[in-house]
Write a structure and sequence with these properties.
about 40% helix, globular, 2 domains, alpha+beta
């Protein structure tokens, strides 16, 4: 895809505050509808962690018009696909259908925006499902390590807990708390409806207005006031439990997604572990020729190593990770990582290496907007982070990154006082580890 993502996107706002982003794409007879709510684990408080994810589940449990199970059956019956997800910054519902069935997802989303029932029996049933989901994740060492590392890196901000929440909160959550969260955040003025596909925008806007225009705006949710203070020194955590492999995660605080340094950090990330896309399908590690692969995997210190820039509404983290090879001490692999990070802060990359990182990063981002669903995701994500022009401005920013920008970013953000180190230390026998994992 060569044209700008925001090209030909129509932006409208209904009287009740609903943002509508429409993009015609007549390359295939399909349409995709994405409802982006500005609520995620970022909007939670201690004692109610995981509530946003749980509410997302409940909106598949039915309304008086769409009883439990009917939504998925109706979408499948027309050959479509439907899903939903919750992240730290947003909750999203999506459905892709043949274009002549676009009325179906519009009807579903408009209805469950206001009419979800939160049946007490379904709440209890879903409590079991979500706790089981949490316990399944706890069997994965990297989930536990990520949780502990995130919790140590963030002392104040609500990014410090996992989207799924703490088990004690999941056990104590009430139906009234869940319903109250729904009523607070599920309103047209807290939602962006992104529609991409084979349709006429004027006709679809009329359909949207007829269905969603009936929903009443809610009082604007209170802002997230917590601001993470600057870190004053290295923090370290460790997780010890049965396992077969040691892992090391090292994270550094970085700015929010809107700041100019993000472009340089994305290229720095590409130098370390290969270019990646920020949107749907992003996070693909290409880095066999990248620095961390050569320094850690080719030297047989690790079986894998990588990095990732976490783009969020509020300042987040630059994440590096190592799967330590059997027989190698985690500290040895950790020091090899620091050597590569320090080199970035001292020596600008060569012209050929920098050009490769720039080309990879731009190409991977363009791949992530190939198809109507991918475009809808990136339009919605861009709007969530800043505006629908965010993605295009980021690509333009990548063009301007120079070698000196990489050195400056490494010196600014990848220092010892700004890092948190998490280590998973496997204990017990291989048989115990197998049963635990």
């Amino acid at each position: 895809m060569t044209e700008a993502l925001a090209h030909n996107v129509e932006e409208h706002k209904l009287d009740n505050g609903l943002t509508v982003l429409l993009k015609e794409d007549h390359s295939a007879p399909v349409a995709t509808v994405w409802a982006w709510y500005r609520v995620g684990s970022r909007n939670e408080q201690p004692g109610r962690t995981g509530i946003s994810h749980w509410v997302e589940h409940m909106l598949f449990k039915g309304t008086p018009n769409w009883p439990k199970g009917r939504i998925m059956r109706a979408i499948s019956a027309v050959g479509g696909e439907s899903n939903g997800f919750t992240s730290q910054d947003e909750t999203v519902y999506l459905a892709s259908v043949p274009c002549d069935h676009i009325d179906l997802p519009l009807e579903i989303e408009a209805d469950r925006m206001t009419n979800a029932v939160f049946d007490p029996a379904e709440v209890e049933s879903e409590r079991t499902v979500i706790i089981s989901e949490r316990e399944g994740a706890e069997n994965q060492p990297e989930f536990l390590l990520q949780e502990q590392t995130m919790g140590a890196a963030f002392a104040v901000h609500s990014y410090r807990w996992q989207v799924i929440g703490w088990k004690s909160d999941l056990r104590a959550m009430t139906r009234e708390e869940l319903f109250g969260h729904y009523r607070t955040y599920y309103a047209p003025n807290n939602c962006a409806l992104v529609i991409v596909g084979d349709f006429e925008s004027g006709e679809v806007l009329e359909k949207v207005a007829a269905r969603f225009g009936k929903a009443s705006a809610a009082a604007q949710p209170g802002p997230v006031r917590s601001v993470e203070p600057p870190q004053q020194g290295e923090r370290r955590v460790s997780v010890r439990r049965p396992g077969m492999t040691a892992h090391v995660h090292v994270v550094y605080h970085i700015p929010d997604a809107r700041q100019a340094d993000i472009a340089a950090l994305l290229v720095l990330d590409a130098l370390l572990s290969g270019g990646k896309g920020i949107g749907a399908g992003g996070g693909v590690y290409l880095g066999r020729s990248a620095r961390l692969y050569r320094a850690l995997v080719e030297t047989r210190l690790a079986t894998s190593a990588g990095s990732h820039v976490m783009l969020r509404v509020d300042p987040h983290l630059f994440w590096t990770f190592i799967t330590v090879r059997d027989g190698v001490q985690p500290e040895q692999a950790e020091q090899a990582l620091y050597k590569e990070l320090d080199r970035l802060s001292q020596e600008p990359p060569g012209a050929e290496e920098l050009e490769k990182a720039l080309v990879q990063t731009r190409a991977q981002n363009l791949f992530t907007v190939d198809g109507v669903s991918a475009q809808a995701f990136n339009i919605g994500l861009s709007n969530q982070l800043e505006s629908m022009q965010f993605f295009d401005r980021l690509l333009e920013g990548l063009r301007r990154v120079k070698a000196d920008d990489i050195v400056r970013a490494a010196r600014t953000y990848l220092g010892a006082d700004n890092r948190t180190v998490g280590t998973f230390v496997p204990t017990g026998s291989a048989q115990e580890a197998g049963s635990a994992e």
